[in-house]
Amino acid sequence: MANNLLFSSYIVLLLAIGVQLGSCATWSEDASDIRHPGKCVIQGLILSVGEEYDPKDQCVKFICGEGSVATGFNCGSRTMSNCEDLGYADVSKPYPDCCEKKFRCFRNGQEEIMQL
For residue 32, which of 21, 19, 42 has the smallest C-alpha distance? Predict the structure, then answer.
């Protein structure tokens, strides 16, 4: 019984992580600079391996990795049928909290502002 409960909890956790990760996009890029060996230089900021950078007013995060390779994360694509994308709801929030988007939708002749 306890094993079944533990297994069920594990599955729910994996699904929750999958939903969160499924809504983002990631990429890697060379962030080396000969003046700063072993570090990442991102938008003029010098980061050590493992350090994170969340640029203000952008919904993105960078993590400096081994070999001066930076991994970037953004929200990926979110769309709603028959709706106009009004952009991010609040880019001042740190990633991934800033990923919520606003949409203007028309349903049954009524305008609705929705967040997703």
Answer: 42
